[in-house]
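Narrative summary of target 7.
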Amino acid sequence: MKPEETDRKKEISLKEVALFNGLDNAQLRDVARISVLRRYKKGEYVFKENTPGNALYIIVSGIVKIFKVSKQGRRKTLALLKKGDFFGEMAGLDRQARSANAQALEDVEVLIIRQETFEKSLKRNPGIAINIMETLCARLRSADSQIEDLAFRNVMGRIGTTLLELAQKHGIRTKDGIRIDLKLSHREIAEMAGTARELATKVLARLKRNGCLKVIDNQIYIVPRKLSGWIH
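Modeled conformation, tokenized:
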């Protein structure tokens, strides 16, 4: 791709990112100019926990999984981020090590903005800082919800809540129900719900028998009303 085509692609991608709402075309071009477009293959790490953090990442295409690993090797998925989402902002702002791992769940393209240039953009465009604070608040609420689920819900409740959240963010309404537009293994669903794969498999089978979900071509379709009634 020619440099001018790359710059245009970056600018178009940035227009779809809520972080940069309120910026005019000239400001978006400035941000596009200081960003670097990079691709990661499925399964490749964007960064690992406890490594130095010196950049903000914006997803142009694909899905990125954010997760932590316990000392015993158990994984807990914190978020699945898609086109238009950003991550890595915490380490970029507080200059601390990465607090979690980021891995490409499928082939991914991201825009990378280095810490020094990102800080300059914040000073020139205070609206970006406000948008970051709003996103951080939303993620804190999500973390509180996950802690509550782990503390007070059984495995059925946690799996059901995970499916409803996936449908809300990645769902497409169809005649068969809401299709979760991701191909997720039972292990990946278990890691999101904070349980073992074997338990997740049993719960998913039970929900399927009770008409709360169906699987077509390796994709999950849920019936929100039935699923909500079953887990509450």
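The longest strand covers residues 55-61.
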